[in-house]
Structures are given as structure tokens and as C-alpha cells.
Amino acid sequence: xxxxxxxxxxxxxxxxxxxxxxxxxxxxxxxxxxxxxxxxxxxxxxxxxxxxxxxxxxxxxxxxxxxxxxxxxxxxxxxxxxxxxxxxxxxxxxxxxxxxxxxxxxxxxxxxxxxxxxxxxxxxxxxxxxxxxxxxxxxxxxxxxxxxxxxxxxxxxxxxxxxxxxxxxxxxxxxxxxxxxxxxxxxxxxxxxxxxxxxxxxxxxxxxxxxxxxxxxxxxxxxxxxxxxxxxxxxx
Length: 236
What we know:
Layout: H1 8-35, H2 42-49, H3 53-59, H4 63-86, H5 92-109, H6 111-120, H7 134-155, H8 164-184, H9 191-206, H10 215-221
């Protein structure tokens, strides 16, 4: 049976639907990042988006559905940048450093998504749970691609030898930890400084060659000391 031919009116309706859907998702991302998912409401999302409740419910049935749509879209965007880096030729360590730059660039361009994702409290080393399984499949491919880059780096003799999937999860954990630290500091540090810290800790954990601490990393780990080198006394 042939499908009914789409009319110009159908195309306009579909385009309007896509615009409203994206607009609501962007507003919801901000609300979730500020209030957390549990305390957010569809009414607040509608106010932030500047649309009626009839419009918002015409594109999403619930805030759970909005959240899943955001996570699927952003996850797909991250997967594409990882695919792009993993497909390039050249030394694997250069690909790994480029991947770190792409991660920092992506999250600095989408700060509301970063704050929202961190507030959800899910560790990035675990596969996400969703009924359709799409997010889990995306996460698994991202980890597999990271592991493939790390395996190449091992074969080139540049990084420590271990299970590539374990190292891929370690890479995700480092990213999440340092990005969370950046958010807790109010995102005041320039992204270049953030990238320097991310690169430092990844090199320190994964590279075979010893890496000296950068000034920014030293500030993160330094403890105040007295004149004898022992910890400075606490003020009462």
C-alpha cells in the first residue's frame, strides 16, 4: 500500500513541530540544570520556553520524555565527535588529546547540559538505563571507540598496558571529575585552563612516561605548610 503523498501543509506542520520540540528541549535543559529534574515541572519549562501548556504537551507527554529526548540528542552529538576523532589517521596519543579537547569544547558550549547531567548523579563509567536502550547503545559505542584509541596507543608503546575498556572508563571518570570540579568553582576558569588540567591528569594516569605536575594541577593538590614543611596549624 502506497503512503499518502505529503502536502506542503504537512511539511510546514512537521517543521513547526520540530522547531517547538527543540525550543522546549533547550528550555528544559536550563530548568533541569538549575532546579534538578525532581523539582522541575512542565509548567516551569513552558514558562521558560514562552509557550502554552497546550503547545508543550503537543510535543512531549511528560518531563520524563523531555529528559530522555535531551539525553539522546546530546549523547548522539558526543558520539559523532568521538567517531570523527577515532576515524582519523596518525599517532593514537594525538587522537586521544584531540578527543579531550573536543570533550572540553562540547561541554563548555553546552554548560546547561553539563550541569543537568551532573545533577542527575549518574557516573559516566556505567551504562545508562533507558527502556528503549538507545542511550545504552550510544554509551557502549563511545566507550568502545575510546578503548580502540587507547589500544592503539598501547600498541605504539605510549600508554600503560591494561584492559582498554578499563582505561576507557577511567578516561570517562577523569573527565567527569574535573568537569564537576570546574562547575563547583562556578565555571570561572577559562576553558584553556580546564583543558590543561584534564590533559595533565590523563597523561599522569595513562602515559608511560612520567609527567611533571603543571602549575594549575599543583594548586589542586597542594596543602598549606608551616615553616618546617609540616601541615600548617588550623586557626581556632
